[in-house]
Protein: Histidinol dehydrogenase
Organism: Enterocloster alcoholdehydrogenati
Amino acid sequence: MRIIALDDTSMKDILTDLLKRDPNNYGEYENTVREIVERIRKEGDTALFEYTRRFDGAAMNPASIRVTEKEIREAMKEVDPALLAVMKKSMENIRRYHEKQIKNSWFDTQPDGTILGQKVTALESVGVYVPGGKAAYPSTVLMDIIPAKVAGAERIVMVTPPGKDGKVNPVTLIAAHLAGANEVYKAGGAQAIAALAFGTESIPRVDKIVGPGNIFVALAKKAVYGHVSIDSIAGPSEILVIADKTADPRYVAADLLSQAEHDELASAILVTDSMELAEQVSEQADSFLEQLSRRDIIRCSLDNYGYILVTDSMEQAVETANRIAPEHLEIVTERPFEVMTKIRNAGAIFIGEYSSEPLGDYFAGPNHTLPTNGTARFFSPLGVDDFVKKSSIIYYSKEALKKAHKEIEAFAEAEQLTAHANSIRVRFEEEE
């Protein structure tokens, strides 16, 4: 891995480099995605089945696009019982964590006859997109469905690309079944996002779409936003490790490579105040590369977006992390909890040398659907709040409004909104 002594110029260059990965910069694909979305909107199932045949090589029709109970039973037979047991443990951890996020409606009653409050209501229908293709992502299924279930969403729909045999990966399908999906459809890509947003003859529309996907999925979510809600426009995966001389270079190198293997656009960055550690981590990363099955992808990722940044101090290391605002942030220092208190921008924070990032991906409980590409400056991990909406509650008695009506009328008239003022005034015209 390349080692860079960090200064203002190199920091600016690195931030510019990382931003090239932003899905908003892939304008050359937008016309293609827009065409797919519009065809689904106008032609429904006809376009959906055509795109599924073209992109996934699977022949779908109204009778086969929805997963049946029989298919679920068959898939259950194909899943390794040991993996099933692990998934159930993971589910329990995820559910327990997200149950802590539940917020209830509240009302505040005052003696003057006013009641103010907030009504929390679960979304009626949610669409969950799960990538398919060559790999299965049961962890993503659990992370996206369980918070919706905990929030109380009535209808949870999952879409995922089918194989050429017209089937869903059995592990993905069983994860959806266990987590509580009400419906599973065999559709992927931008066409599946459009189907969820606008509905087709076979797939009823939903109120919100969540879940990661490739650039076409990301741009489709962007295109349908406003017709439905979305969680975010996810970019490639990323990890940043803050480490000092006390860190084990072998652990740090292994953690960096764990994210670099996602794809060629993934980012893996070490920020340290120790040149000795920087050199050791670089050596360990090279050593690990020869042993790993996805070494070609990892090598490409590190060549493009992998850095070891050496700072003058731990304070500068923390400042660098806050500027990058990584999806995953590991803190492997002598006093990691102290460093954690200084972090403002990160999707998930992993503290200490035994809190490796894959712990969060699969098992610990906090959600692994996280803000990417610096959006941790203003976005949060997926959670229960993403699957509820809030309504303000206002009640005034006549006596309470009487005390305030002249002030409200004056405010409205200051904005030259005389109908607003009149709406209040008519309630007291007989008393004046």
